[in-house]
């Protein structure tokens, strides 16, 4: 049985984002293979993918290490998001399916209910699902991949505070869905740009002193949230 590299990649990426592997720590193939119960081949492929995504860097005499993004690199991600999310919403207005609309409307309805009850943790998850579904509705594989990667990297670098008026935030999402449902690409783009700009103020760097490059420290690993799920792997 060979575990797909993308499954290993997802597991390592999730552990980087959640802080299991600290910035700058080494990622040895042997350690990762043992940790996820796989051979070194899918680990090697996964590290190459994660390097192309910016989560991993290869350093002389150290090998693969978790990247250490600068403050400027973190800020650039929010700028890029403000450009791409409105584009995704405009495309969604042109290409969405009824299934996409059903999911988006359901998420808005749940978000509004949770906002009125002040259920913050649920709102965070629902917000993520909303923007993921909106991206999927764009019908553009390249754009979906870019937005997915952005969400991972922003979650890695930023903690997101709850908006001061969560009911208003979900009303904004509801207006975006209405524009998408009507096929009004320009309104969907404008509303999403406004929403992204407002939400930027809710992002706080997880480490305000984000460093530049420096020598990789001894690996620090906290307990992982999950392993590689091999149940669905075909023999």
From TrEMBL:
SMART domains: FCD, HTH_GNTR
Record field: compositional bias (Polar residues): 221-235
Pfam families linked to this entry: FCD (PF07729), GntR (PF00392)
UniProt domain HTH gntR-type: residue ranges: 2-69
Keyword Transcription regulation: yes
Basic and acidic residues compositional bias, start-end: 192-212
Entry keywords, A to Z: DNA-binding, Transcription, Transcription regulation
Region (Disordered): 192-235
Name of the molecule in the record: GntR family transcriptional regulator
Organism: Streptomyces rubiginosohelvolus
